[in-house]
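May I ask you to review the protein record following this short note?
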Amino acid sequence: MKKIILTASLLISALSPVIAAEVNVYSARKEELIKPLLDEFEKAQNVKVNLITGKADALISRVASEGQFSPADVLLTTDVGRLQRAKEMSLLVATDSRVLEERIAANFRDEEGFWFALTKRARPIMYHPERVNPDELGSILDLTDSKWKGRICIRSSNNIYNQSMIASMIAKFGEQRVQQWANDFVKNFARKPKGGDRDQIKAVVAGQCDIAIANTYYLAGMLADTDSENQKIAEQLKVFWPDQQGSGAHINISGAAMLKHAPNKANALRLMEFLASESSQKWYADNNHEYPVVQGITMSALLAGFGEFKAEDVQLQQVGELNAAAIKLMDRAGWQ
């Protein structure tokens, strides 16, 4: 019997390094938009990746409820507002990585190392060229003009992309000025805000409005869609980059963060560094049509077709910190 127990112990001991070589990922990205990259990491690093996908806010709540027993190592999510929210909920742990600090500019990572951007996202104006002369457009601040009354489509104030856009405007222009702007901006909506970014694009083509504010990867995704109807819709819109003579167009990020109770911290860091590698950044650009956050990586041809633009220069950490103020401001303006 002793011999059997000893043999079993030796087997477990021998297997332990293999079992330990894993990392658990909670991802707000759909599986098809991240799994191929994680498979590549598994193969290259010999680390098993266990992936759970879901809505970003639900995943953050799940980590909070799991507490110290959470198996999650890495949180992948969109929008700096969510990353900052997870930090403020004390769900994250700071990482110290020279690789991440060298590859990702200071403006695109938390100053204390709690989160790092993986891609950049831009939120310009999209318009129908048969109903809008681009010479009519300029600053996003000009969209309060009465000539846009009943012509603007945009998502609801519950959407974090809009919340971050307003938070960014507060950082740039001050809360009082943005409040007045929002009060007038909502008066120009063509309809009660509803649906996602693709729905705003479709609404413009359907004639429900003339311009929409949406993230570029939605338009690029429709242009690359295997559904020819989506392609036809997307082909009818043009992208206008606002505020090119001023503060620049609004940008946001998707990012990664290590979770406070991560049981596999070393592997989690290896994964985060892998996602910031040249090959991963190129994959993001080509397959998700998001702007690489690491300099020197070529963007997708579809994104390049939207033209070069001047991006705003705002500390994204500040954008995340102003999320609550943005929500209150939008509520006061009656932005549903």
Observations:
- Residues 1-19 have pLDDT under 50 and may be disordered.
- The CA atoms of residues 1 and 7 lie 10 Å apart.
- Residues 2-20 form the longest helix (19 residues).
- The beta strands are 22-27, 48-53, 74-78, 116-122, 125-127, 152-153, 211-213, 238-240, 251-258, 291-292.
